[in-house]
Amino acid sequence: MLRVEDTQVSVEFSPELLNKFADVVTRYPAGKQKSALLPILHYVQAEFGWVSPQAMDKVAAYLDILPIEVYEVATFYTMYLLKPSGKYVLEVCRTGPCGVVGADKIMDHIEQTLGVPEGEVTADGLFSWRGVECLAACGYGPVLQIGPEYTFYENLTNESVDKLVSDLRAKAKN
Amino acid sequence: MGRKLLLEHINVPGINTFDVYRQKGGYASVEKALKTMTPEAIVEEVKKSGLRGRGGAGFPTGMKWSFLAKPEGVERYLVCNADESEPGTFKDRYLMTYIPHLLIEGMIVASFALGAKTSYIYVRGEMMPQIRILERAIAEAKAKGFLGKNILGSGYDLELYVQPGGGAYICGEETALLESLEGKRGNPRIKPPFPAIAGLYGCPTVVNNVESIAAVVPIINDGGDEYAKIGIGRSTGTKLISAGGNVKKPGVYEIDLGLPVEEFLYSDEYCGGIANGKRLKAVVAGGSSVPILPANLFMKTINNEPRLMSYESLADGGFVSGTMMGSGGFIAYDEDQCIVRNTWNFTRFYHHESCGQCSPCREGTGWMEKVLHRLEHGHGKMSDMDLLVDVSKKIEGNTICPLGDAAAWPVASAIRHFRDEFEWHVTNGAEATTRNFGLAHYADPLTVAATA
């Protein structure tokens, strides 16, 4: 059961973000602005790290649709994070060919390296990780991606995962 | 050496930019179509080509286009289905990453043929890098006069947008994709009405896969008849096959339809054989939803003829000893792979991705996953296999969209062909999870012949 985290956070959309919203809405015919909902939720998540109930309410008001129309979309699609996550969310493909070439072992290694179970955030707030379904990179598995850019890392080994994690730690310090 | 209609220039440095793509002859089909052809003539060429939808269903593309309702005063839409999420399939990602203008070129020609003034490329949200690549390429094409108002002075206007999905395999189903594009949950619609009559915003709409739309470019450049000369029977043209699993050279290959599977799997031009000196145990030829085949059945048809990479040859023998072309997602399994584990992995995927709209799929996929999980973890019962077959039959054909069938077929086929391996799991309990299964009767016929 997906649950929207019940937190009281104040959400303000910056003028830059509102410009992005407005640009998306122009892609659809008049009166069909609800089509902008998925792209706008991506923008919200990229900005705030997750999609909070308060942000969803504000998106509903912006698009002139009911809040429930936003909730049902945000809870249906797996990309929208409904609770605060690490700055970097390592999403490991666990399906099909990635499974054949060792995705499970990579996930085990990530769990050990980060010291947190799937879905939890490291104490420094930098990382969380989860297994996700097929990422359509089946020839280059195991693979993982990291939002909000959704940068891809292919042909993973324990060593390449270690380097990735330490690079991200270094990046976060700078 | 197969022809390269789509991937000919894939390795040219800078081919992802407008200028280099144009230097290599890019956008010629737009010039030809908009300046010298009528929309009806374009549809006719696509019909002549025999092109079948490359997303998995294999429905004739030209026929699909000709079904589009054309009432006056009503908008019509072309939507490209780039929601590639079928395990084993990664050809569209490849094409969009390296040669995005090919897709945009095809979108312009197809939109003109269908009378669409606004078209969308619906890309799965996880492919954000590809979304950015496409948006950049669209901006370039627009700056050069190939999109927007009065394209090339033809009087034809077209706006093209990229729409990100939110992470849901079901949005690869065309009506679920349209729901998603309308900003809703990706719940498939009951058909009829088909999108050709009532699609996006209730308007006539065509939904085509990335590869299908890209194939329109060579069809218009060379003519439908030329395209139809490639391939075999009703499997015309070239096809992108994405090869993964335990092959030596995973990747995306363009083949002439009709290529023998043996050549695809073992020649150096393509997969190069099985990795690490192992032998082939099984193959999933067209993405996770198609029936899995043991090596010996994969290599030969029911009539003991060499199996070909064509829609008809792969399907020969029906679901008893054949499979499907599907999306061209090719997964090879070596002798060490556990079929029970793989079947559980696929079923977990379908359970996770079921939209929940139809009870047989929502409940059935979860039930199958639980049973397969206990089998895989050494807690199964001998009656589980019959139970799985029973549940799969109750899902198949009883849902609004084909996701139910897609979930049922891998389970039913795995038990049909590898029942002894499931039984071994029951008999040997937890030990079974670490077993190397060997080949037994799944033996790769090529290897057997070589060592006989």
TrEMBL record, chain A:
In terms of superkingdom, the source organism counts as: Bacteria
Query: Which co-factors does it depend on?
Result: [2Fe-2S] cluster
Record-linked PROSITE patterns: COMPLEX1_24K (PS01099)
**GO MF, one example:** NADH dehydrogenase activity
Q: How is the cofactor bound?
A: Binds 1 [2Fe-2S] cluster.
Name the positions where [2Fe-2S] cluster binds. 93, 98, 134, 138
Q: Which UniProt keywords apply?
A: 2Fe-2S, Iron, Iron-sulfur, Metal-binding
Name the InterPro entries for this protein: NuoE-like, NuoE_dom, NuoE_N, Thioredoxin-like_sf
Q: Which Pfam families match?
A: 2Fe-2S_thioredx
Q: Which family does it belong to?
A: Belongs to the complex I 24 kDa subunit family.
What protein name does the entry list? NAD(P)H-dependent oxidoreductase subunit E
Which species is the source of this protein?
A: Mucilaginibacter ginsenosidivorax
UniProtKB/TrEMBL annotation, chain B:
Enzyme type, top EC level: translocase
Xref: SMART domains: NADH_4Fe-4S
Q: Which residues form a coiled coil?
A: none
Q: Sorted alphabetically, which InterPro entries does this protein's record hold?
A: NADH-UbQ_OxRdtase_51kDa_CS (IPR001949), NADH-UbQ_OxRdtase_suF (IPR011537), Nuo51_FMN-bd (IPR011538), Nuo51_FMN-bd_sf (IPR037225), Nuop51_4Fe4S-bd (IPR019575), Nuop51_4Fe4S-bd_sf (IPR037207)
Source domain of life: Bacteria
Which EC number(s) does the record attach to this protein? 7.1.1.-
Reaction catalyzed: a quinone + NADH + 5 H(+)(in) = a quinol + NAD(+) + 4 H(+)(out)
- Keywords, comma-separated and alphabetical: 4Fe-4S, Flavoprotein, FMN, Iron, Iron-sulfur, Metal-binding, NAD, Oxidoreductase, Quinone, Translocase
Keyword Iron-sulfur recorded: yes
Q: Under the GO molecular function aspect, what terms does this record hold?
A: 4 iron, 4 sulfur cluster binding; FMN binding; metal ion binding; NAD binding; NADH dehydrogenase (ubiquinone) activity; oxidoreductase activity; quinone binding
State if Flavoprotein is listed as a keyword. Answer: yes
Q: What cofactors does this protein use?
A: FMN; [4Fe-4S] cluster
Query: Where, by residue number, does the polypeptide cross the bilayer?
Result: none
Q: Which residues form the NADH-ubiquinone oxidoreductase 51kDa subunit iron-sulphur binding domain?
A: 340-385
Its biological purpose is as follows: NDH-1 shuttles electrons from NADH, via FMN and iron-sulfur (Fe-S) centers, to quinones in the respiratory chain.
As for family, the record states: Belongs to the complex I 51 kDa subunit family.
Q: What is the name listed in the Swiss-Prot or TrEMBL entry for this protein?
A: NADH-quinone oxidoreductase subunit F
Q: Which organism is it from?
A: Mucilaginibacter ginsenosidivorax
> Which gene is this protein's source?
nuoF
